[in-house]
Amino acid sequence: MKIATLIAHEILASGGYPTLEVVVTLDSGEVGTASVPYGISAGSHEASVLIDGDQTRWHGQGMLKAAANVMEKIAPVVMGMDASDQRALDEAMIELDGTPNKAKLGGNAILAVSLASARAAAAALKKPLYQHIIDTYNTGVDLSELPHPMIVAIEGGKHADNTTDLQEYCFLGLEPKSPTESVRIILECYHELKKVLKSIGLSTNVGNEGAFAPSNIASNEAPFRYMTHAIEAAGYTPGKEVGFSIDAAANEFYKNGEYHMRVENKKFSSPQMVRYYEYWLENYPIVSVEDLLSEDDWDHWPILKKLTDKHKVMLIGDDLTVTNVERLQKAIDADAISAILIKLNQIGTLTETVDCCLLARKHNMATVTSHRGGGETNDTAMVDLAVAVGSAYIKVGPTRGERVAKYNRLIEIERELND
Ligand code: 2PG
Ligand code: MG
Question: If you measure from the C-alpha of residue 168 to the centroid of ligand 1, how many angstroms do you get, rounded to a whole number?
Fold first, then answer.
């Protein structure tokens, strides 16, 4: 299972700019291909995404430098290495890079090699990728409990124009149904939501992730009402089969120590912001919340955590924790969160991602494995990862090919496990 060749090139991501695809071939002839996504509301503590900065092509967003790093710098080190020894491979690339955030080689370059190698090894071992991850890291996961869908229904913030300050309002499946059934129920609600928005004269155009992005929305609270109507119109009961999750992506409206709510034309201190959310937790069937405060507002996350604990709501860190064991440990020590969002490209190797998931599990914290808003590809490794580490949910948009590819992979895994 020795790595024989590495090829890297640009492919298009859903945002219309390039991203990186890597093809790893083993000396046994097995091939593994992987591509990596990028975020739009990326946290400042994430692994770097190396872009060319050459303004004569792709507005500087090309990835030829990252591709060259794979072929010229990473390849000489990893060629000949055993693709099934994923930890050794990832550690070799981390050492070669030598920076805390993979700025030298690019987190995109390193992750693409990491995932393509995992795929090649899984192919050589004749295992599905999720099983290969389970076996490689001894995750000890129970495959009778697959992740459930957390489906973005309304998106705003940086993912759309002139809509909510909060970035995402999601539906999630509540009753213990199969993931496939949950996907169906939620998408039925999504289609009803389109009718609800239309009926009140709001646009049903979609944002980056395929969720509705109505402009001139009345308030940041209004989506809860629209989504409640949609659940009822689909024949379900809010809080019974379907609940809500929100991702504020609060970094994006945090400036000079205050939270700027453009829609309501108000500015809040951190304690005021927590009170603002409290009203929603009391009035809507909110099951989970993410990044309600900014990525370094450490003093107030524990206050928010007490509130979400009181309401039995899962509090997810995303930009706060960036799939990084050190930031996760800090959040655990501060009692700042009860769950963590997992994005492979926030940290940049499969090994570090799984280590982060295992640390979360050790502390009885749920993981939610997520797509990226900026540019996604049809690569579905995030779903296999979610299955392999026992994530509670996968967070992905409802429509567009690069999003439904993830749900189709989840459905395929469920089908295969039941056969
Ligand atoms: C998030 C993500 C995914 P982005 O904040 O959770 O929806 O957005 O990839 O733009 O950071
Ligand atoms: Mg987020």
Answer: 9
* Residue 41 Cα to ligand 1 middle (Å): 6
For the Cβ of 368 lying below 6 angstroms from any atom of ligand 1, the answer is no
Give residues whose Cβ lies within 5 Å of ion ligand 2: 247, 291, 318
**Average of per-residue pLDDT across 254-261:** 97
* Residue 176 confidence (pLDDT): 79
This prediction's pTM:
0.98
Nearest to residue 365, comparing CAs of 324, 388, 395, 331?
Answer: 331
Q: Is 132 in the pocket of ligand 1 (CB under 6 A)?
A: no
Residue 210 CB less than 6 A away from ligand 1: no
Cα(49) to ligand 1 centroid in Å equals 14
What is the pLDDT of the chain when averaged over all its residues? 97
Between CA 82 and CA 121 the distance in angstroms is 9
106 SS3 class: coil
Kindly tell me if the per-residue pLDDT of 192 is higher than 90: yes
Atom of ligand 1 nearest to the CA of 42: 11
For the cut 90, the answer to whether the pLDDT of residue 177 exceeds it is no
- Say whether 194 sits in a helix, a strand or coil: helix
CA–CA distance, 385 with 369 (Å, rounded to integer): 8
SS3 label, residue 138: coil
Work out the widest C-alpha separation in the chain, in whole angstroms: 62
| Sequential DSSP letters for 338-379 | SEEEE-HHHH-SHHHHHHHHHHHHHTT-EEEEE--SSB--S-
Q: What is the DSSP string of 110-122?
A: HHHHHHHHHHHHH
Q: Reply yes or no on whether 30 is catalytic.
A: no
Who contacts 333 (Cβ-Cβ below 8 Å, separation ≥6)?
none
The reported pLDDT for the residue numbered 175 is: 84
State mean pLDDT over 27-56: 97
C-alpha to C-alpha distance for 293 and 249, rounded to whole angstroms? 8
- For residue 39 and ligand 1, the question of a CB distance below 6 A is answered with yes
Ligand nearest to the CA of 291: 2
Kindly provide the b/e burial profile for residues 339-363, where b requires at least 16 CB atoms within 10 angstroms of the residue's own CB.
bbbbbbbbbbbbbbbbbbbbbbbee
**Span 46-65, mean pLDDT?**
98
